[in-house]
Amino acid sequence: MQSSGPFDLIGELPVHALTLHATVVLLPLALIALVAVIFTKRIQPRLRTPITIVVMLVGLLTLVTKESGEALEHRIGDPGVHAEYADILTLVTGLTVLATMLWWLLGFFAARKTHQADSPEPLHTEESTAEPHRKTPSASPMLSIASQMLSLLIAVLSVATLILVVMVGHTGATATWKDQISNTTPTSGLQGEDSTTSSTAPSSTSTPTGPSGHLSPSPTRGATPTPTGTRRPITMAQVKQHSTSSSCWVSINNKVYDLTAWISRHPGGPGRIKSLCGTDATAKFSEKHGQERDPNQVLAKYLIGALVTEHQFPPRVR
């Protein structure tokens, strides 16, 4: 399986599938810890630098997750609102990281001024003017006010980020699982397994079916999802008769495929396959996948016949 870049695949798995779980766990934890450090003065001096580094690293992880999500989008299609929320989450996370870095800098300068104020005063000559530290009293309050404002800003951004993490995670899970789960029951997997294991000696005309009467979505068990088991000449008129999600035939490159079982399993969502049912999808498939090996291999499993014209095959074909 060919990878298009560092954010595409790793170990033949999408990078996005590996990084998103770390992001949705580590990002909220890091921000909760950050807010705790900001508003707990007793631990702030010791943990200011470590928590800032952690937030920066998690911010980088969030960026990697977004980039890998876009790489996955090029493979399976636009996830819709999930991608929109992800863009907002990346922006808000970036602002949180910047605010945290500024908060650290202000704390660093404030600690430095405190250290200078606590150190012994050097001896001054008579030429030295009085009030050598006249600016110090006015500088410290300014740093304190700025730090407090940044602390409040970070708290607000952190809450917004936590909300966005939930929304991004929910919309992503919905895009991945909702349509697949809606077509199942709590026992459908067991029924599909029983259907597969209870079948007798395989033949060229037998097809494993799931509980709905369609193909059992279990390619990992070795089942070949060929709906009829017999490849035959098929006309475009016949393809058009199978234009629903319960019977979805598609013509691609003068071949006909029954994609009924693939609708609920398509990574980009069932809507992308439903829109092709009963049509010639050659142009759309070529534009999206071209000669990519994996999509073409998956498609080949659903081949049921060759596309012919009416004059090439007698009207007795049904």
UniProtKB/TrEMBL annotation:
SMART domains: Cyt-b5. The chain crosses the membrane at residues 20-40, 47-65, 85-106, 150-173. GO terms for cellular component: membrane. InterPro entries: Cyt_B5-like_heme/steroid-bd, Cyt_B5-like_heme/steroid_sf, Cytochrome_b5. Pfam families: Cyt-b5 (PF00173). Residues 195-231 have a biased composition (Low complexity). Keywords: Heme, Iron, Membrane, Metal-binding, Transmembrane, Transmembrane helix. PROSITE patterns: CYTOCHROME_B5_2 (PS50255). It comes from the Bacteria. The keyword Transmembrane helix applies. Residues 119-134 have a biased composition (Basic and acidic residues). Residues 231-308 form the Cytochrome b5 heme-binding domain. The keyword Endoplasmic reticulum does not apply. SUPFAM superfamilies: Cytochrome b5-like heme/steroid binding domain. Residues 119-139, 180-231 are annotated as: Disordered. Residues 180-194 have a biased composition (Polar residues). One of its GO terms (molecular function) is metal ion binding. Gene3D superfamilies: Cytochrome b5-like heme/steroid binding domain (3.10.120.10). Belongs to the cytochrome b5 family. This is Soluble cytochrome b558. It comes from Dermatophilus congolensis.
